[in-house]
Amino acid sequence: MRIKKYIRYLFGIVFLVFVLNKLYLRSWILKNKPTPALEVITYSIPNLIEAIMGTIALTGIILRLKDRFQIKINDAWAYVISTCISSIYVISQELKFHNIGGNNTYDFNDLMASIIGLIVTLGLLLFLGFREKSS
User: Fold this and answer.
1) N or C: which end of the chain has fewer CB within 10 A?
2) pTM of structure
3) Which residues contact 51 (CB under 8 A, 6 or more apart)?
């Protein structure tokens, strides 16, 4: 399966942003306290990224299973299914139904970041696709 270039770049970029945010940006924000809005964004970025990366990873897995077992659904349904599974995980984690991803505290902004990540990723997948068309 050949994955579209924008998916590979998006996955790599959001992973890099996650690492830079965790290692550098958060500590700088805590030390300097530039604006409250920047602080909210910095603390909510991991939730946005978790939703994006989770949906992309699950989409790849579901498309692979679809091809392997010759499941007769179109790719758009695979995108919706992967987004639904991702949303169950990230939203239930934010609402403290489980603590699989670490020691979380409920924050409305984190919940909104997760939902935005899910919606944006689903939109990208539906409009731009996940894999290159086979020739």
Assistant:
1) C
2) 0.93
3) 86, 87, 90, 113, 114, 115, 116, 117, 118, 121
